[in-house]
Amino acid sequence: MSTTKAHTRYRLKSNEIVPGASTIANMLDKPALVPWANKLGLKGIDSGAYTREMAQIGTLAHSMIMAELKNETLDTSNYSHEQISKAENSFLSWLEWRKRKNLSPLLVEIPMVNETWRFGGTPDFLGLIDGVLTLADYKTGGIWREAYIQTCAYRQLAMDNGYPPADKILILGIPRTEDEKFQEVSYTKFDKGWDCFVLLRQLYDSLKGVK
């Protein structure tokens, strides 16, 4: 399994390329990022370079989790020793969580599209966790409100592709550094998240061509 992951292009049956659920959900404003970037700047840290480095570590940590769930061998040759070390810390924190859970996956990271609402997505996990049908998503760098909207869209996406409706959404925040904490957030109500996603999906189309 390679960690070099090209941006997934989602296509409808008509061959039309449509946006991913994460692209739609990330249209929400993130006011907390401005003071965060300013704080880094005051420390002499390039926020852009720091963000790219953390994203690489997050991608690798996510790939480690997926490889474990799929029982695949992971190629880490494109990463530095430091990146691998930090990603392994994230992976180990997930393993500690998994030891306390009984997982039985139905799907692990399968790209899908929704023909009605014209979007795509790749849910991390759908299956039984301690006997409850759960859609799980793994995040590095904290859990933001758009994660709820994105995972509600994933739940609908899986249903439209023939999978049973998840009874629970679980979002895990996987730490990459010592100042980050492991987070576990769950939801059993999905209407508001899906309603927000539908509005954002409509806004996405409305903004096309607006300069």
In short:
This protein is an alpha+beta fold. Helix content is 43%, strand content 20%.
Key descriptive features of the protein:
211 residues; 43% helix; globular
List the SSEs and their pairings:
Elements: E1 10-11, E2 17-18, H1 21-25, H2 33-42, H3 47-70, H4 81-99, E3 103-108, E4 112-114, E5 119-121, E6 125-129, E7 132-140, H5 145-160, E8 168-174, E9 183-187, H6 191-206
Parallel strand pairs: 7-8
Antiparallel strand pairs: 1-2, 3-6, 4-5, 6-7, 8-9
Helix pairs in contact: 3-4, 5-6
What does this structure look like?
The protein contains six helices and nine strands; from the N terminus they run ββααααβββββαββα. It has helices at residues 21-25, 33-42, 47-70, 81-99, 145-160, 191-206, and strands at 10-11, 17-18, 103-108, 112-114, 119-121, 125-129, 132-140, 168-174, 183-187. The chain is globular and about 45 Å long.
Q: Which term fits the overall shape?
A: globular
Uncertain residue segments: none
Helix content: 40-55%
Mean pLDDT: 88
Q: Largest sheet, described in full? A: 5 strands, mixed
Q: What is the terminal-to-terminal distance?
A: 41 Å
Instruction: Report the structural category.
Output: alpha+beta
Number of individual domains: 1
CATH class: Alpha Beta
Placed side by side, the strands forming the largest sheet appear as: 3-6-7-8-9
Secondary structure tally: strands: 9
Radius of gyration: 18 Å
By DSSP (H or I, 4+ residues per run), the number of helices equals 6
Order of helices and strands: EEHHHHEEEEEHEEH
The CATH topology label is Lambda Exonuclease, Chain A
- Quickly give the CATH architecture: Alpha-Beta Complex
Strand composition percent? 15-25%
